[in-house]
Amino acid sequence: MATFHEISPNASAGAKTLNWIDNRFPLSKLFKEHMSEYYAAKSFNIWYVFGVLSLLVLVIQIVTGIFLVMHYKPDAALAFGSVEYIMRDVPWGWLIRYMHSTGASAFFVVVYLHMFRGLMYGSYRKPRELVWLFGCGIFLALMAEAFMGYLLPWGQMSYWGAQVIVNLFSAIPFVGPDLALLIRGDFVVGDATLNRFFSFHVIAVPLVLLGLVVAHIIALHEVGSLNPDGIEIKATKDAKGIPLDGIPFHPYYTVHDIFAVSVFLFVFSAIVFFAPEMGGYFLEYNNFIPANPFQTPLHIAPVWYFTPFYSLLRAVTTELMYVLMACVVGGAALAVLKAKMPAVFKAAIVGAAVVVVAMMLSIDAKFWGVVAMGGGVVILFFLPWLDNSEVKSIRYRPTWHKYLYALFVVNFLILGYLGTQPPSEVGGRVSQLGTLFYFGFFLLMPWWSRLGAFKPVPTRVNYSAH
């Protein structure tokens, strides 16, 4: 039987209300566990604000999405007109729509930065593997949510972008054509596709996304946030069990985050009011033209946040397939000749290499392009087991590791830019090199992450008051 906590009859109305709630719901307990008595390292820097900014943008998207759904019509004949009605006739409809469209790009900006912080400081390493896996699940769900929402305005780029991406599924051997037909609900992108994407965008994917966000936060608060030094602050505690290098999340980091939120909202509002299209990157100009199945745009490209992975897709040609086959054969030969392992394992490696090469020769390059695009996201899930570095944080890794991470970021940005451009011979070669570097960065990580002279990691976090 539950124990009820009594309170003085002379207590204030607020205290009595809180006590009444606490006797029925652990509000104060949750606040203490996750805010006032949740200890975080003193040394958090600017990189640690992007998690709360992601949560803020999620709230913006949900709230604005609810108001947009009130006026939007998921019908191929009415969808574009309903968006125009929202923009022109609904009071403040233009603001809600621009907040939602800008919020989609802002979501990916803060999520990319949040993930890069995890990559820099090794936030995916033991015991935070689940935190990283839930985060990658959020990223995957976010991509699905953005892609399905992109079709809803029913403009030219919405229609043809969906046509191109859905048709990619038909490249999957055996089940591809049927799978593409199932996703479209018709032989071409049409009213059935719009209704499918609308239901997933508004109901199914947001529920999954919210569940993953809750799981991500619960897992994070169970093991604690990692600091820039990669040190577990729970290892050094005082007599009361409080980490010596920790401070309560509230009020110290809530104030920290409120400042970051204020700066973010200032920039966000400036974009919404003065440059919601952002030169055609946030809202493409072709999408202000109603969808026309009989007129293909000169250049079809996804929104900027998909373009790095779109470049991976376009980079895989028959020529690149031969290069990849040479890499597979070379890697297998190196493993067999250099690695010390039983003969059975060596035979298995050789057999696997033969199977992979045979598959590459027998299946069209278009399919492997789809695999590369999907693999560019899926490989992130394996990062906790690919990194064999002695230390977690980039601060204590060899200097050349930092240059390698910087090169990875530059490569990712170049792939993103090339994905927005029409295909060209030079761009194609650059994207092929970028694709090889992207996958090489991760697939060779078990080897290169162990190399170099590592700096000694301190037992306490480095912190200086500012």
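The record above closes out task 2.4. Task 2.5 opens with a second protein, given below.
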Amino acid sequence: MLIDGEWRPDGSPHPVTDPADGGVVGEVSFGTTADADAAADSAARAFGEWSESPARYRADILLAAAARIRERSAGLSVLLAREAGKRLPEARAEVNASAEYFRWFAEEARRPGGAVIPHEAPGKRHFTLRRPAGVVASLTPWNFPCSIQARKLAPALAAGCTVVARVSEKAPLAVTEMIRCLTDAGVPRGVVNVVHGPAAGLTSALLAHPAVRIVSFTGSTEVGRLVMEQASRRIVRPLLELGGDGAFVVLDDADVEAAVEGALIAKFRNTGQSCIAANRFIVQDGVYDEFTGRLAERVDAMSIGSGTAEPVPDLGPVIDRTRVDAVTHLVGEALAAGARRLTRERELPAAGHWLAPVLLADVPAAAGLGCREVFGPAAAVFRVSDDAEALRLANATEMGLAAYVWTRDVGRAWRFAEALETGVVGVNDALPSASFAPMGGVKQSGLGREGADVGLEEFTDVRYLALGM
């Protein structure tokens, strides 16, 4: 743990295992609620000086941190691949994206905030200022542990906030080493703190701490509701990026081969363990047979293995047995209700946490595979006749994080982009995330936005200034 500028090894040791074979990758020290309180106290003490420091000073530290992350990217990537089960190329991409968040927000920190309001009252002038909001509790998951934490840390620090980070115990090693890059870059004592341990207890302690003003959480909608409920007791601002149920719409004028390539990325990146993953393929009649045939053929040809193996496999393991059981249940439920398997069954290694990629057609609307976040390498395929039916089905979910549309028609693309009830839309693009673009959902997929200039604003308060002349 990192508390008040000191790396503390004390606490109960917790092993971190490789989901490919169960081997121990390393361990972290689990703390207690007292450690969470101490971390928040440290962040509160550091807030005054950090929040008043020049933007150029904060920006230089973030740039130095980005440089260190890139310098150490090889080791960080291998560590991330082993603890999270990622394919090594995906782990490298995540580490590089993490560095980019620090670089981009370092530059954004130096851009002016606030506004001059045209005056209407004689003898008065009106202005707004943006001020750092205070101590931030940053709570992140295991599926993209480095990049999601970077997407919170970088704008919070750029804005002048101090942070207590609680990272998932399932994949805490690489992200902790990423945060070491911040301290090595010169982040002052207490500005960034890290605590490890059981999520429920540490989260409750942080949200009850009087100095914490913002909680930034990425995770499931169910847990997000609990975080929001606890945050409401002290009026802590919630910034929530929650679950998704992504629709991947293929219209009848789409480039089918490009759509298949996009589908493989949108569904199977990180072995399907992504909030913005495509869960439901919604395909129009005119290209349904061609698209599903090509996609099933490509899925059946996918290789499965450890993410650090050579050659690199197409799919790695999932994070743990809980994920194996959850996805297996969704697939079994759909098959029992009459769904039809489009892809082959295959044998999987006995050790580790593995799932075969699965595509199912004729999935009943009420089956979980067709209406809930899957978070694994399984998806339902639906046939539709026209644009209206495709749009209705895409929006027939309580989630609203991301959706995808494949079409050659600009007019249709715009109509879908405007009508889809999601925070992110990828049009002929299976990888819409970027440091300079806002990420977040609508409906039950969250509140607020991360990334881009709005991601910086989330960590500030607007102060109105009325000046008598």
